[in-house]
Specification:
166 residues, mainly beta, five-stranded mixed sheet, 12% helix, 2 helices, 13 strands, single chain
């Protein structure tokens, strides 16, 4: 399965559309990680969009509520989608790791910092909330408003993230 990952569009819907159009193969879904909900729809160019609310988002289209976090499962992996402000992502990754452990997530996709990041936390890593029982991967696509986005390819055997720019 293939996914596009966006965060922090802040009114630049066109950037989302440009990246979607440039894809060689249509992704299975788009993950939108907040701060620009009004730039997204439930489907964009025929692709389903799974989205969460950021600290600059309150509602979309007539007050329709959007969750601050979502857990989705693809290819046997639990994926936590969050904006990152509730986990204090601007102060470091500790809160994101804690959230992953609490929610038994394998992957955490977040935004908020506008800085691309890919970090693997190995199983057995000591944290403030104990030792991690399994590997956790943290991924931030950066800000699509600044031209940064991410991709994720998932199979039963592999998990491949990459960062891209406009």
């Amino acid at each position: 399965m293939e996914f596009l990952i966006f965060s922090d569009s802040h009114g630049r819907r066109r950037n989302l559309e440009v990246v979607i159009r440039r894809q060689v193969r249509q992704p299975d879904a788009v993950f939108f990680l907040g701060d620009g909900l009004s730039d997204t729809d439930d489907r964009m160019m025929g692709i389903p969009v799974i989205r969460v609310r950021g600290n600059c988002d309150w509602s979309i289209g007539g007050g329709q509520p959007v969750a601050e976090e979502e857990i989705v499962t693809f290819e046997g992996r639990r994926i936590l989608l969050t904006h990152g402000h509730h986990q204090n992502a601007k102060s470091g990754i500790g809160g994101l790791i804690r959230a992953a452990v609490e929610k038994q997530a394998d992957l955490v996709l977040y935004g908020h910092t506008h800085t691309p990041l890919l970090e693997t936390i190995p199983a057995g890593t000591p944290t403030a909330s104990g030792v991690t029982e399994k590997q956790i991967i943290l991924f931030n696509p950066g800000s699509i408003a600044a031209g940064s986005f991410g991709t994720l390819t998932l199979t039963a055997q592999a998990c491949l993230f990459s960062h891209g720019t406009l």
